[in-house]
Design a protein that fits this description.
- The protein has five helices and eleven strands.
- A five-stranded antiparallel sheet has the order 5-4-3-2-11, with no helix packed on it.
- It is 29% helix and 25% strand.
């Protein structure tokens, strides 16, 4: 597993490259491009290791990280990391948003959440941050499904680690992937 800075660098490199990096040929072509465009030589095998195409626990060399940083517009990996530390795009911060927290609800309270396109859930609060779906319109969530969350934020997707359906846990679920929750109302506290 890479340091977060390297993982972000690889994502930005792949985004700029604009093509997939999934096969030996893909890595060969990207290696040639880096060299031909004057960024430097990075072997196909190094690129494969970086992107996890082959297993290897070796840390990438500084020169390799410098070349990739230069490819996305930074003179070195050190300058890329420095930019990350000062850039507002990576800063944690407080924010304001309409929200409903489990702590403000009594057991039996009902809320309604909705997201595009035309998805609406009516939920009953069961206590201990657990909710049950009591009505579902156009959603993959079904009446009787249960899940845990501490908070619902307007205009932020709802990420659930799992849903309990028929006594079984599902895979993680996301509601409102594009645009977040657009409707958020307390029906009864």
């Amino acid at each position: 597993m890479h340091r977060p800075e390297i993982t972000l660098l690889l994502g930005e490199v792949k985004e700029k490259y604009g093509r997939k990096l999934e096969t030996t040929t893909d890595f060969d072509e990207f290696s040639v491009l880096l060299d031909k465009q004057g960024y430097g030589k990075v072997s196909t095998s190094t690129l494969k290791r970086l992107w996890g195409y082959v297993s290897d626990t070796r840390k990438p060399r500084g020169t390799t990280l410098d070349i990739l940083s230069n490819y996305i517009g930074f003179p070195s990996f050190k300058s890329y990391v420095k930019d990350m530390k000062t850039s507002i795009r990576f800063n944690s911060s407080y924010f304001t948003a309409q929200h409903i927290t489990s702590a403000e609800l009594n057991v039996g309270a009902e809320i309604e959440v909705g997201w595009a396109p035309n998805r609406i859930l009516r939920l009953r609060y069961l206590g201990e941050s657990t909710y049950e779906v009591v009505e579902s319109m156009n959603s993959k969530l079904q009446v009787g499904d249960k899940f845990m969350t501490g908070c619902f934020f307007k205009e932020v997707p709802l990420y659930l680690p799992y849903i309990i359906r028929d006594g079984e846990r599902t895979s993680p679920f996301i509601a409102g992937r594009n645009g977040g929750l657009l409707g958020l109302n307390i029906i009864s506290k």
